[in-house]
Every structure is written in structure tokens, then in C-alpha cells.
Amino acid sequence: MIELRKILVLIALILMSKLSFAQDAKVSTKLDPPQIVVGDQARLFIEIQNNQKQGRLQWAVIPDSFNKLEVVERGKIDTVKQGDVFTFRQRLLITGFDSGVFKIPSFQFPVISNSGTASAVQTDSFQLLVQTVAVDTTQPFKPIKNIIFVKSSWLDNIWIFIGAAVFIILIAFVLFYFLRNRKDKTLVVDNGPVETLQEKTIRLLTELEQQELWQKGQVKEYYVQLTDIVRDYIELRFKTPAMELTTDELLESVLRHKEMIPYRELLAGILYTADLAKFAKSQPLPAEHVATMEQAKHFVNLTKPADIQPTQQS
Fold first, then answer.
1. Is residue 61 a contact partner of residue 70, using CB atoms and an 8 Å limit?
2. Fewer CB within a 10 Å sphere, N or C end of the chain?
3. Per-residue pLDDT of the chain (314 residues; tens, 9 = 90+)
4. Beta carbons within 10 angstroms of residue 51's beta carbon
5. Do residues 83 and 56 lie in contact, with contact meaning Cβ atoms separated by under 8 Å?
6. Is the peptide bond before 310 cis (omega within 30 degrees of 0)?
7. Alpha carbon distance 203, 47 (integer Å)
């Protein structure tokens, strides 16, 4: 009896410790409306509050379809910061093409504490009613109407004529301008300004940042390009293979390169975050996208060689 009581107390303490940590992340969900017509859309709102000092929140992997329902649109994850508490919001558009009552399952969001303890918070599950369009069977069927032809005149196509005329005038102007200046024009080859390897790499990272790929939902493409730029820089800067190696192989080779050893931890953070997004189908938070880009630029600036060799801009 005493042994059973000790076991129960131990289980209660474990559950309480996990519960107290999970309380640092709070999730709320809302479905609007709770019923739709076949092909119509319902909105699922997800909101999570997480204390970043207590632990790191990972976004749930939400499939494109479940229980005969489909996710037709995923809104971007909005982030609001108030002190140490981050609030994340996302809207999903869900539809169904079969009538009936279907379940929207709960989604789990892993939370990793700073001490390494793992827990999770999950959304509520919902029942979505999908109905067919009501048909009044008391009304008689109406016959199909014949095609009604409408008389047309050249005025109906006046904009086509105007567009064609403007196009011809533009072509004539371009040909005239090209032929008139062709004799006096001298071809000048401009290879652009010479830039160092470090300057070129920073420029490529900045251009990738300006494409706003992860903001458009192209998270995998964003990290593929980012790691290609960093790996190419490593090959040229440290004269060591990087493009064809896995992350673990590359980090192991760093340990054999005395000049790169001080930057191994910084490089590991960049590559492991990219691998999670590319291969584990993880969804890093917006703050992590920005942090990874800043870490890549910081790595390039820290490893700037003393004797900079210029490289041709491409």
C-alpha cells in the first residue's frame, strides 16, 4: 500500500512539472462558421502565446487534407511581441466537397524548454458540418433555353483596332530609333566593378533577403539558396570542399581546419536550422528566418581574410 502511494505521488509530481511548463505556452482556436455548403470555406484561427525565456515553440505540421477536408489556403504566421511573450497567429481556410459532419483534429505544437525538457500544447478539435445545396422538389423542371444571338458592329471591336494601331506605331518607332542610332553606337563591354569575395557574398545574401521568399511561403527555397551561398563562400575562402558534403560531414571537416574551428558553432546553427526547414518539413518562426540570415552575414564578416582577393562581379 505504501509503495503504491509513493508511485502515485511520483507520477503526480511528473505531471505537475510538465503542466507548469506547458502553461508558459497558451493556445486558443476558433472555427468560423461551424457549418458550410459543399465547396464553401470555413476559417480556422490559431493563436499561441509563448514566453521565449521559458522555452522555444515549434509550429505544428498541419497536413493539406484530413478527414475528407482540405486546407485551401494558409495565412502567414503573424508575430506580436510584448516583453518576453510572443503571440503567434495564423488563419487556415478549410473546405469540403462531401456532405456530412467531419472532424478537424487537434494539432500539437512542441515546446522545448531552455533546460531541454520537451512538452506540447494542442489546439481544440472541431466538428464541421458540410451541407449540400437545398433543392425545391416541388417546382417543375425548366427547359433549357436556346442560344440567343446578338447583332454586333465594328464599334464592338473598336478597342482591338486601337490596340493594333498603337502596337504598329510602337514597332515602327523602335525600328526607326534602332536603325538611326545603329551606325553611331559603339559597343562597350562593362564587366562591372571589381568586388572582393566577402563583398560578393554579402551582396548575394542581401539580394536573397530582398526576394522575401519565406514571406511568400517559399521557406525551403529560401534555405536552399542561403546554404548554397554560404557553402560556396567556404569553398572559395578556406579552399575546402563544402557543396557536396552533408551538414555533419562539413562540420567534421571544420574541426580539421584550424582557421575555421572558432566559427564551428555559428556555422552549425545556420546549417541545422536550414536542414530542419528543407528535410524535416519544419516551419521555423519568422524570427528564426531573420536570425539565420543575420548569422550567415555575421559568419562572412568574421571570416574576412586579412589579404582580400578581388573577385569579378556576377
1. no
2. N
3. 555 554 544 444 344 334 334 456 889 999 999 999 998 999 999 999 888 877 888 888 899 999 889 999 999 999 888 888 889 999 999 999 988 999 999 999 888 887 778 888 889 999 999 998 776 667 777 777 778 777 777 677 788 888 888 999 999 988 888 888 775 554 444 555 688 999 999 999 999 889 988 888 888 888 899 889 999 999 898 888 888 888 888 888 888 888 889 988 988 888 888 888 877 666 778 888 889 899 889 899 998 876 545 455 44
4. 16
5. no
6. no
7. 37
How far apart are alpha carbons 299 and 238 in whole angstroms? 13
Strand-pairing partners, residue 112, are 56, 118
User: In which order are the strands placed within the sheet that holds 35-37?
Assistant: 35-37, 126-131, 100-104
Cell numbers standing for residue 264: 564551428
